[in-house]
Amino acid sequence: MDIREQKHLHSRNFTILQIVRGTRRIYPIVDTVYHTTMIRLSLLPLLCLAAFPAELLVKVTGFPRNQGQIGCALYAGPDGFPMEPAKAQAQRHPTTSATVLCRFENLKPGLYAVAVSADLNSNGKTDKNFLGMPTEPWGVSRNARPRLRAPRFEEASIKVEDGPALTIEIEVAK
Q1: Does the predicted TM-score (pTM) go above 0.85?
Q2: In this structure, are 133 and 153 located in the same domain?
Q3: DSSP letters of 99-147?
Q4: 79 near 64, Cβ under 8 Å?
Q5: 84-97: per-residue pLDDT in tens?
Q6: What is the domain extent for residue 42?
């Protein structure tokens, strides 16, 4: 038998003695199969998480049914929050039921804040009084409602991570 092709099976320890190019190597079959399987199984949760990009579901309540639209705006930072939907991912939904669901998909993990308003007259904006305060129902994530000023991004921010969808509830009010 040629030295490069010599193989030996030891039945008690399930090892293979393989001589390749003059070097002796011993491979434990059982341990190799076990460790390879365990490594693959330990990586499985990471593969599952990678399959789910970050997603945020916003459940909006507290508005009059069948009157106007609900506008949801997702802000990735304090710039424009909460009154400039042009600087956010914005959506509009009719108020046909007691609850409206806004879905934001394929998000990068990080801090976000959501501003919601009930556009009762369907004019495409949140109406305000002469002081600049909203006259239509509104709300933000974490239901932050400071008095006499708009909520800050830090007060309303939520952490969105990869994995299953994060669901939050915002109740709009005047």
Answers
A1: no
A2: yes
A3: -EEEEEEEEPSEEEEEEEEEETT-SSS--B-TTS-BSS-EEEGGG---S
A4: no
A5: 999 999 999 999 99
A6: 7-50
